[in-house]
Amino acid sequence: MFSWRRMYDKLLDLPLRFLIRSKILPTDPHGEVNLDPRQLVIYLLPYNSKAVLYVLRIQCLKQGWPDPMTQLHIEGLTLPRYVFIHDTPRVFSWYNKNLKSISLLHKYLNLHRSNPALDMQLVPVAVMFGRSPGRESPSNYPLSKPYLLNGIEKFFAVLWHGRDSFVRFSRPISLRDMAIEHGSDKSITHKLARVARIHFARQRLVTTGPPLPVRQELFNTLLNSKTIEKSLKDAMHSKKIPLKNMKQTAIDLMEEIAADFSYEGIRFSNRILSWTWNRLYQGLQVRNLARVRKLAEEGKEIVYIPCHRSHMDYLLVSYILYNHGLVPPHIAAGINLNFWPAGPIFRHLGAFFIRRTFRGNQLYSTIFREYLGELFTRGYSVEYFIEGGRSRTGRLLKPKTGILTMTIQAMLRQRSSKRPITLVPIYIGYERIMEVATYAKELRGAAKEQEGFWQMMRGLCQLRNLGQGYVNFGEPLPLATWLSTQVPQWRDSIDPIYAQRPFWLSSVVNEIATTLMVRINNAAAVNAINLCSSVHLSHQGSLTRPQLLEQLHCYLQLLRNVPYSQDITVPALTPEALLAHALTMNQFTIKNDTINDVIFLSRDQAILMTYYRNNIQHLFILPALVASIICGHPAIEHAQIQQRCLRLYPFLKAELFMRYSTHQLPTVIDKLIAELIRQKLVDIKGTLLYPVPTRLHNLKLLAASASETLQRYTITFLLLNANPKWSRKMLEKESRRIAQQLSILHGINAPEFFDKAVFSTLVEKLRDEQYLKDTGDVINEKISEMCEILSELVEVDVLNTIKSANFQTNKPTFTSLSTKRA
Fold it and tell me: Which domains does the chain have, with CATH numbers?
């Protein structure tokens, strides 16, 4: 009998070896699963299958874990190393054998009662062939447990999906603890089996997601909603159009908006993207994905909110989630991407399309809001870019709150009460993106190119050597918990039909949006390119290799010893390794010298590299500000540094979405000063701080990281001081004009230096900080004090240029002089 069994296993091994290629989840099983191979291990499976055992065995041997096909010999008993919860259905249902898993589990628990020193680990393992969730339909009901397949169904599942199989390990359970805490009678065994079934069902839902809707049935559900019915009747009466025609218009809008998610499309695109990423990128670094997996396993409704750098973002997040065993989300994409062939492809990959503005189209707004609510109701994860469009500067953009408002309204209408909504911010970073040259042209006034087939083909032809990609999942924001803390009465605003806007909605949405942007920046990824760019752009000329390495060491020490947040990722490489990698990206120019290599950026290179520097500028702006204040004085009191930083910080916080509160700032400044002293960039005598002469060059390079920001502030404050009656619009306009002039005269290569959005944020913050009043008056004492602080921090020649431009702005015309004399 034993020889026949071995022969059967060997015959089965050959086709399975060819048909099956599996992935292990989580991707770092030793870190997340925490299985101890020195203890006795039992594998708990959802159902009995030779194919499943084969896949499990391969992955266990790869990880150095016990072979599930070997047997256990305990106290004279010979027992299998695996237990299954469900028996496999037969082709003929009357031939099913009695289930033996309950009695086997009972034996294991009894062994722990008779032998207290024994401690077995029960490891739940789910093996899945394919990840299709199926379609919503009454006929699909028997497939609610799709892992229960008979022999013929399993054969076709392995044949078609064998190379798309996953082995998901869960944390082990101690059977000794179970026996001590709950006992070992049969009722406990049955309870353990029930919990295991729920666990496996939840694991499958996490991986496949809920069944997909039949498109026409989804449209019918939306048309029957009371909100859309009311909107259709209102439009019918106002436009004098028959209801039948209005319904057809509504269906056309649904066709324009709705995704047509296809599992086969996801599966096929995953293969293409795997091939593409391996050739374009040297690696994809993913951090904190365990947070998302935990939320999914807890049954939360997940809304992914990434920053938006490139068109690659759409594909990258879905690719990573799919390959880590999570369901790719439905993605809100701009209507500009709905062109052939990209539009139909993106729609099958989960994209639903959104217009740039809803203004003037109440029916469209209602349908989109209802569609979004329906996605939440059915349990689909959603992804949207809160910035509205791709960042042209590399910084985070001011958030657009329309779709976030709709998310909260969907929750207020109790559309997703069974699955609480959790917002997950995501930082996406690249060492190189394909659009950066186009961004620089647009910032200098070029018109934005319309997306289309030929533009897409040109972009694809330019893809090469993109270095590393980084996706860091930030701290999740549970929406209901947040609202309960900030707006305790929010549940009183629930309106199941008309979704009226509560009075507190706008302010709370703005606060949530800002918090999300801060949490995205909290998860920033530092890499060789953005770090070398930050160093090199601080020096307008060139740096020798030793100078560049020394400054890289300084920056790395700051990041490691005074970390900006617990979620940022800092490379563990040496400065030499970082520089070597950066040079392979062909973004820097090297000039060989007899003594040292000189590394520099051409003007065109410098313009493009500002994008990558801006990705992490918020990490270095405070150290740079402290260094600027110290460099601007032969000696300065510690308290004076604190006072100047406190005055400037609100503007930096608003511009760069920084995390520290005003109360936290003094402690952070103290830590930064202590680190500068430790690095021997700064010396202290009593309460006075001095630059160290031998390290003055390094301190000035660090200070230069804040120079452009401080120059912009100087322009605006000097203008406001000279023209207190100017309107906000006028102040923004003249500030931009002088900044543009300054960039030409002093060779400032940063395209965002005179960006409209930057000055708009600054002027808006002036009012919030009480430098301006709503009546249009200014507080002269505060303005004058800030002008004095900034004048100390800006180089003399730059300050003179700003003052000269300011004088020309306020210079009386010939006509006004003649009138005065008359």
Answer: 16-137+144-208 (no CATH), 285-522 (no CATH), 526-615 (1.10.10.10), 618-822 (no CATH)
